[in-house]
Amino acid sequence: MSTTLPRRLHAEELQKARWRKSSYSGGANDCVEIADLGAYAAVRDSKDLELSPVILSRSALDDLLGHYTDGETCVG
């Protein structure tokens, strides 16, 4: 695990980001969206786009998604 702090993202990077929804989301706009930011990924609530997105390293996002694709659940 790296101890190097990530660089701070600039607002224009988030404004220009290409957000995508899961193909599993319904028409009710009740899911999260993800944007690829290179070494990072941004995750936001599709119901409230004014909220700040959560920024994760790609490895942290992979770990998080791996828990769900492997059938595990996160509690706690």
TrEMBL record:
Domain DUF397: 17-66
Pfam families: DUF397
InterPro entries: DUF397
Domain of life, per lineage: Bacteria
Protein name: DUF397 domain-containing protein
Record organism: Streptomyces ardesiacus
Lineage: Bacteria, Bacillati, Actinomycetota, Actinomycetes, Kitasatosporales
